[in-house]
Every structure is written in C-alpha cells, then in structure tokens.
Amino acid sequence: MKTLVWVEHEGGAVKDATLSAVTAASKLGEVHLLVAGEGVGGVADAAAKIAGVGKVHVADGAAYGHALPENVAPLVVDLMGSHDAFVAPATANGKNIAPRVAALLDVMQVSEILSVESADTFTRPTYAGNAIATVQSSDAKKVITVRATAFEKAAREGGSGTVEAVSGAGDAGLSSFVGAEISKSERPELTSAKVIVSGGRALQNSENFHTIIEPLADKLGAAVGASRAAVDAGYVPNDYQVGQTGKIVAPEVYVAVGISGAIQHLAGMKDSKTIIAINKDEEAPIFQVADIGLVGDLFKVVPELTSKL
Amino acid sequence: MKVLVPVKRVIDYNVKPRVKMDGSGVDLANVKMSMNPFDEIAVEEAIRLKEKGVATEIVAVSIGEAKAQETLRTALAMGADRAILIVSETEVEPLGVAKLLAKVVAEEAPGLVILGKQAIDDDSNQTGQMLAALTGRPQGTFASKVEVEGDTVKVTREVDGGLETVSLKTPAIITTDLRLNEPRYASLPNIMKAKSKPLAQKTPADYGVDVTPRLKTLKVSEPPKRQAGIKVADVDELAAKLKALGVAA
Ligand SMILES: Cc1cc2nc3c(=O)[nH]c(=O)nc-3n(C[C@H](O)[C@H](O)[C@H](O)COP(=O)(O)OP(=O)(O)OC[C@H]3O[C@@H](n4cnc5c(N)ncnc54)[C@H](O)[C@@H]3O)c2cc1C
Predict the structure, then answer these.
(1) A175, A190, A219, A236: which to substitute to probe chain B, counting the most B Cβ within 10 Å?
(2) Model's pTM, two decimal places?
(3) CB atoms < 10 A from the CB of B216, how many?
(4) What total number of domains does chain B contain?
(5) Lower CB density within 10 Å: C or N end of chain A?
C-alpha cells in the first residue's frame, strides 16, 4: 500500500505532528510525502531525510503558501491516483484539508486515529475521549488524520527520499489569505512540550497568568496552557486551549492550576504521564485523574511553590 | 442572502458518556439530548447576520431520527425561519450528511452555510469541509469572526498558532469555533411561536442519496482508566515530588 502524508511545515521546518503522522502511515505501507507551499525547496530536502520516507512530492507556488484547502485539496486528489491512503496530522490545518480531500475522493475519513489495527481498521476517540471506537473502513482508498500524541515521532534523519516536483492547478480562485495573528513565545510549543502548566477560570485575569502561572512555567521550562473558561474570558489567546475542542497534549508532567476537570478539558490532557492538580476544592473532578494533588488557594501556594524550586 | 444552518441532536455536553456493557456503543437511553453546542453558535451567528440585515432568511436543517425535530424547534425558537428534517433512523456518517446537505444547498441556494466545527458525539470535524468540497465552495473553518462584505466573506479562524484571516468568495461554507459568539436562549414566547413555523419532513431517498455507512464500528470501549493518585499535604511535599520527577531543581 502506498500512503501520501501531507507535510505541515512552518518557518522552513517540518512540524512535529507530521513526524507522528509518518509513523502512523508507515504502519500502512510505503510512505510518500507532499510538501506544498511557497519557497519550500528546503522543507522538501529536510522531509526527504525523515526516516522511512520514499518519494517527496513538492508543489511550490504562491497558491500553496498558506495551506488554503481550496488549493491544496485538488493537488492531493491528483496525487491520490497513485496512492492508496492519504494521511494528515490532526492539527488545525490537517483537519481543514483532509475532509475536503476525502469528499472529493468519495471517501469517509477516519478522524484522529489512535492506532492502526490493520490496513483498514483503526481506533479513534469519540465522545470527548470517553468512548474509543474501533472502526473498519470499506472505502477503496483511505483518508486518515492522526492524533500526534498517540504515535512516536519518526526520526528527522536517516531517510533518503527522492524529491520530485509536481505542478497542480494552482489557485482555485475561491479564497485568499488576508493575515495572521500568531502568538509569539519563547516557550516550548504546547503540543510538543515535556511540561505544561495550565491555568483555569480561577486565575481571574490575564495579569494573574503573567504573575502566577508564567513564573512557575519558567521554573519548569514549561509551556503554558489553559481551560476553555480562561480563553473565553480573554485571560489568554485561543491557541492556549487544551481539550476536546482545543489542543490534545500528553506531556511528561501536566500541572492544572485552578481547573475543575470538566470532561472536555480532561479529553485534551488525560494521556499526560503525570498529572498534578492544584485546586482549592478537594472535591474537584480533576483530582480523580491527578497523580499528585494539592488542595489549596492557588494565589498562595503557586508563588510559594515557584519560590521553592 | 439566505443562510442554511445544519444542526445535530447529540448527547448534552453536561452528561458523562457511558459505554454500553456489550461494547456496541454509548448508552443514550434516558440520557439528556441537546443541540450540538457548536451548532447553537452557528444558529446564533445566522440570527445576528439577519439582525444586521445581511441575511434575509434562515433555514435550519437536521439529519437524524424523528426526535431531531426537537432540535429544529430549538433552532426555530432561537430565530430560524423554517426547518427541514431529513429523517433517518440509522446513523448517517459525515460524508452522507454532507451529500444530503449538498442537495439541500442545490435546492435552496444559500449564500452561506454555517455549521458547527465538530459534533461532540463523534468528534469527527468533517462535515463542513466535505460540504464545501461537494459544492465546490470555499470554506472558513473554526471561525471566531465572520464579516460579510459584498460578495466576499472575511473569516477569522482559530488555528494552532493563534488566529488567521481568510477572504472567501460567496457562496461559502463556514464552521464555528467556541469564540464566535454566545448563543442566546430562546424566550418562552418564541418557543411558542416556533411551534407554528414550517418544518418539512424528508428522507434521504427523496434526495436520491445513498447514505450506507462506509465505516463499520467493530467495537466501542472505555479508555484506560486513570487511578486517582495521592494528595500532598503542603507545598514542600509538592516541590519535592517535582524534583523527584526530574522537572525542577
Ligand atoms: C462544546 C464544548 C467544548 C468545550 N471544549 C473545551 C475544551 O476544549 N477545553 C476545556 O478546557 N473546556 C472545554 N469546554 C468547557 C468545559 O465544559 C468547562 O466549562 C471548562 O473546562 C471549565 O474551565 P475551568 O476548569 O477553568 O473553570 P471552572 O469549571 O469554573 O473551574 C474553576 C476551578 O478553579 C477552582 N478554584 C477557584 N478559585 C481557586 C483558587 N483561588 N485556588 C485554587 N483553585 C481555585 C475551583 O474550585 C474550580 O474547580 C467545552 C465546553 C463545551 C460545551
């Protein structure tokens, strides 16, 4: 079986979630990649070095610059003539593109797989991760998105793929990129961080995120996350949200500060190796999944903890 | 401009889903069901567009069992003008839903279709993108802001790194994210009024769409359970634990 993995890249580098998608794809068969973008020669060369990769198809052009699904999906559909499965990381961009490809191919996508059981059978989370479904696809071709935390990352080095240029139809003329407001941070990225400190509604404002959560995160070399309630209230930007409908994370250590532990939040972090919860309510559901819990007022205990590390 | 809003009847978000003992699915007997929260946001956005004079008519559509009528009545009570129910007692997958919606789009010719980005039961996050593909329309997914300007719509999207804005030619497909708006509650008089708003009943066969599932669910199981751990007595103990984990000095 030949698989085609859509490569997500940023600033000339292949993103981590793609490496997990490559691992999932390698369980299905030969792995080919698609690098689409503007000025992506370097990305293609880097992608060709990923362990286990065969061919790297490169579509270089302005139309592919911002991963617009209207332009990228037809490109993928063309290449699917000679591939049996399309695999994308279940990131915002992957989720935007893959279903458009699936429908054009008349395929029912299997979203956010956790495992590859066989060439046509996969497990995937449903109901905020409270029910894991094993599904078998009867479609001739497969379209799959991959939950990055469920698969090891393929090695960035060791492969010797060949790079081949493809020319697609270019701009479909339906959509254009206007601009982006990307959060800048010196911290590790949420989805690849080893340690995460997340704050909830209890933080009360963005100032407290700066003065209470960030110093602890600094001490731990951690990324900063948040509950939906904290994002909705404007304490932190939307890209901090961890959960069923936000980011899925599985760090070594996840510290939940002033987060109650709603199922929608747990869905995004319960595969963390060690969960630490700080909450003033000893009955808070977060303690049912926490390995280590501290009952206390975060405004007192977090600064004290930070000072002792 | 007409706006089409597809809505789905799902388990209420406050209910903790329980997997059936026989592994055949999630137990929905006697469980509270509601409109998918992202679809409520979609209905609200359509109503706001109508209040701004951008939308002229709001058509809500649902695909599901006969009880999905209740969900459509909720949409009507919030402010949709009329509804279409496509009844299927068997589950229709996102691809089948998108095919049915594509037929409705062909009939109704809406300027915008606004859907939820995902349903909180199957968590697929596909239908809007698929509908966009099948209708050849552009898609603005995970929207946190929607601005209609002439024959384009500017959509601000929640992406992994923050926010991104795209400009789409209308007609277009939009899927909602959590920050787009806060849906209103239907008032009692509006709930009463909704009862007499038109609701058409159809079947997939009426549209000539084959909705045979492509995915077969072999088994549904509970995820591995986490055991509750220990509670530490004070900050010193927690600091010691963090050091033992090797993440702090
Ligand atoms: C469709 C949908 C999707 C959703 N998706 C997500 C998602 O992806 N991610 C997500 O997180 N949520 C999501 N939610 C929201 C979720 O249901 C909860 O509302 C949310 O997670 C609650 O956030 P919280 O824990 O910060 O707030 P709360 O539930 O209000 O909890 C605050 C906690 O702080 C504690 N506290 C208060 N003061 C202090 C103090 N001084 N010191 C210590 N502790 C204190 C309280 O005891 C409480 O436990 C979603 C909801 C819906 C409907």
Answers:
(1) A175
(2) 0.97
(3) 12
(4) 1
(5) N
B157/B233 Cα distance (integer angstroms): 44
- In chain A, whose CA is at the least distance from the CA of B227? A289
Nearest to B197 by CA among B73, B107, B97: B73
The reply to whether A239 and A141 lie within a common domain is: no
Do A133 and A43 fall within a single domain? yes
In the numeric block, the tokens 């984990």 are attached to B245
> Smallest CA–CA separation between B193 and chain A, in Å?
32
- Establish if A181 belongs to a structural domain: no
CATH number at residue B204: 3.40.50.620
Q: Is A213 annotated as a binding residue?
A: no
Instruction: Tell me whether residue A185 is in a domain.
Output: no
Q: Give how many domains chain A has, as a whole number.
A: 2
Looking at chain B from residue 78 to 137, which residues have their Cβ under 8 Å from any Cβ of chain A? 93-95, 98, 117-118, 120-134, 136-137
Can you tell me which residue has the tokens 């998608």?
A: A21
Strand duo B139-149 + B172-176: pairing: parallel
Q: Which residue has the tokens 């989370």?
A: A125
Do A66 and A108 sit in the same domain of this protein? yes
Strands A274-279 and B2-6: unpaired
ipTM above 0.90, yes or no: yes
CA B120 remoteness from chain centre? 8
Range of the domain at A259: 190-307
| Cβ of residue A246 lying under 6 Å from some atom of ligand 1 | yes
Are A157 and A262 in a shared domain?
A: no
